[in-house]
Design a protein that fits this description.
This is Motile sperm domain-containing protein 1. Its main location: endoplasmic reticulum. It is found in: Endoplasmic reticulum membrane; Golgi apparatus membrane. It is a single chain. The chain is of the alpha+beta class. It is built from five helices and nine strands. Strands 2-9-8-4-6 form a five-stranded mixed β-sheet, with no helix packed on it. Strands 1-3-7-5 form a four-stranded antiparallel β-sheet, with no helix packed on it.
């Protein structure tokens, strides 16, 4: 039994994680249903916890069951009411502190702070949220638009000119068409550079395929042959 007690988790003061939901309370002046909020404290541990709720401005709130206990692997609801709704408190952030300790000890094993805020209108808050989301979407849309317009001229410039391979192929085809045809005797060009009619037709076809001059060079080939 003594060894089992020593193997229990070390409950260091202030280091025990506290699980509570939600972590923020928002009260709306024009919506009385929000003047009552519920905090849920969870106890995932294998030992019971006792809790205490503290507040920076206790005169503004009423906490039902500000102290209590939570059984192992259970949860408990803590009701908090806002009892002093006035315009001067709009936007002011108050804090609740939820402290937990082991039932057999007084020291606080863990704590969690919850922010509480009073706002004038739920509808205004929703409208502001929607307007903010709309502004973000418009900003993102504009950013994408400008990026595309900046990239388009650069892409057109890169793809407007012919590649080196295409230029080289065109030069080879032109040179082939300028060489003498087989059968021409009066030529200073060596005989092995004389091309047949079919070879010149192929060169003219390739040149026309890539440069649009097919008809011109086919006509030229016919003239050379005649």
């Amino acid at each position: 039994p003594m060894q089992q007690q020593k193997r229990q988790p070390e409950l260091v003061e202030g280091n025990l994680p506290v699980f509570v939901f939600p972590t923020e309370l928002i009260f709306y002046a024009d919506d009385q249903s929000t003047h009552k909020q519920v905090l849920t404290l969870y106890n995932p541990y294998e030992f019971a916890l006792k809790f205490k709720v503290l507040c920076t401005t206790p005169n503004k709130y009423a906490v039902v069951d500000a102290t209590g206990a939570v059984k192992p692997q259970c949860c408990v609801d803590i009701v908090i009411r806002h009892r002093d709704v006035r315009a001067s408190y709009y936007g002011v952030m108050d804090k609740f502190r939820l402290q937990v300790s082991e039932q057999s000890q007084r020291k606080a094993l863990g704590k969690k702070e919850i922010i509480a805020t009073l706002l004038p209108s739920a509808k205004e808050q929703q409208q502001q949220k929607e307007e903010e989301e709309k502004r973000i979407k418009e900003h993102l849309t504009e950013s994408v638009f400008f990026e595309q317009t900046l990239c388009q001229p650069e892409n057109r410039t890169a793809s407007s000119g012919p590649s080196l391979l295409t230029v080289f192929l065109g030069i080879v085809c032109i040179a082939a068409l300028m060489l003498p045809t087989l059968g021409e005797m009066e030529s200073l060009v060596p005989l092995y550079l004389h091309l047949s009619v079919n070879q010149k037709l192929v060169a003219a076809y390739v040149l026309g395929k890539y440069f649009g001059f097919c008809k011109c060079f086919l006509a030229t080939s016919v003239i050379w042959e005649t």
